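#struct-help
A.M.: can someone run this one for me? Single chain, 128 residues.
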Amino acid sequence: MGRTATSSQEDIFSAADALVAAGKTPTLLALREALGGGSMSTLSQALTLWRQNRSGASMPEVSVPDLPLALKTLLDSIGRSFWSEAVALAGRDLQSIRNRPTKRQVNPDNGFASWKRPWRFWSRNAIA
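D.P.: on it. Structure tokens below:
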């Protein structure tokens, strides 16, 4: 004969809500302690269902006050300074890339284009 459940799903949900209200994270061990016992598998199933139901519920909106004008002005100034420095650095990098010689260069001795080949390692086929 099997054991009867000591905690119903509603009891587990209530205990999880009480833990959250107390500022604690509802874990299996915390639920088991709050309920005075219970099967870990039963608690786990109910806690998973509680989390799914809770994620579907909308979280209460928290109003965030506006930034003071002095702080907005300071942050705007810092942001503009940061952005202008980033644009200047990008421009310098772009200019250095444009000034790099390309791989294909004209030979000044004969006027023909020649390709510079990077160093190649010997392959198995070349050592015969």
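A.M.: thanks! The mean pLDDT is 78.
D.P.: also worth noting: Helices lie at 9-21, 28-35, 40-56, 69-99.
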